[in-house]
Amino acid sequence: MTKDDPMSSIKTLDHRTYSSEAYPEKTQVNGDLPVCPLTGSDNVIVLETFSTSLLIECYQRDLGLDVSSEFKNVQRLQLCHCPSSDLMFFYPSITGSREFYQKLHDFPWYFPETKFEYDHAATWITPHQEILDIGCGAAQFVQKFPETSYTGLDPNYRDEKKNVHTSHQILTETIEKHAMTNPHGYDVVCAFQVLEHVANPREFLTAALTCLRSGGLLILGVPSAESYVTQITNLVLNAPPHHVTWWTDQSLYSLAKEFQLSVLDLTHAPLESWETRLYWMQRMAEIFGTKQTTHFTESPYRRLSNIAAYLGAGLITPFANPPASAQGSSVIMVAQKEYFTPS
Fold it and tell me: What is the Cα–Cα distance from 72 to 57, expressed in whole angstroms?
């Protein structure tokens, strides 16, 4: 894999087939038991257990990144499922350091200039509204609203790159810190491809909603756990220390219920140009791979089939257009704050 191409590996497993009968009982990791980070429920199912050394090796091979220090003394991870919320999450939750994200920012594909979720979110925003963009990166989203009141937050983005796209205010602080001094300060709060990186989504969402005025809109864009992304085995960018939660449509509705939000819209993005090779890689893996039973594996055959799928996708992508109905990796939820009292 090169800096110009965000690829990895492959797999197919429908999360809707998960059941307590089919998967092992909860087991302790570092002396603790997994708890759903959205609901706090301890009624969770462990889907897979795998070594952190597998991820360390894959990050080095696929992206040229040494992430060994990110895992510290954690030797293994569990992929868990909360039946009540439908949220999938990794346990323990190992999130990336500032240094980790600054290395990712060096990849030109990490912040696409245009995305469907920006265009879709823009249809819900009117002029003169005050917008808070959490995890704003280089503030690509504000290009849709050059005259609006916009504040971006990104504690990981390099200072010298902050103002590439805007003269608006961009702060290198967390949403939790921002909420302490800006309660009810915004008409729209957005977080595009952020929630899946957060170890404590409940704390994150509490702070985001504290910043939102009554009747305001919360717009979230996340990778869909029902897209091709979770069908790619050993896809390191869909694993710690990058992604720590996997969101289905049902889990987003569960989120809205937890925070008394009215869901106004839930839309899956179409396949976008920057992800075409990943799409074909997943399709090719269906041809080269055997029946897939895990998302993370050290199987030599699976690794070889991933390489074949990656190379095959590279040959197909310049000449074959995906079907018009092909679903992209992201899902966007627009929800309205009716009332909210931080607990």
Answer: 15
First to last CA, the chain: 45
Sheet of 130-134: strands edge to edge? 169-171, 149-153, 130-134, 186-192, 212-223, 327-337, 261-270
Say which amino acid occupies 160.
E
User: CA–CA separation, 175 vs 206, rounded Å?
Assistant: 9
Q: What residues does 88 pair with on adjacent strands?
A: 81, 246
**Which two tokens mark 12?**
């197919």
| Angle at which helices 300-316 and 276-288 cross, to 10° | 130
Q: What would the pLDDT profile of 109-143 be if each residue is shown by its tens digit?
A: 888 878 999 999 999 999 889 999 999 988 888 88
Cα→Cα distances 144→119, 149, 189, Å: 8, 12, 15
Weakest mean pLDDT among 77-81, 161-165, 295-299: 161-165
DSSP line for 181-213:
H-TT-EEEEEEES-GGG-S-HHHHHHHHHHHEE
What percent of the chain lies above the pLDDT cut of 90? 61
Going along the chain from its start, the domains and CATH numbers come out as: 113-223+245-268+324-337 (3.40.50.150)
User: pTM of the entire structure?
Assistant: 0.87
E-assigned strand segments in 23-103: 45-51, 76-81, 88-91
ω into 83 cis (within 30 of 0): no
Residue 149 is given by DSSP the state E
Give pLDDT, residue 291. Answer: 58
User: Rounded distance, CA 192 to CA 103, Å?
Assistant: 19
Angstrom distance (rounded) from CA 31 to CA 17: 29
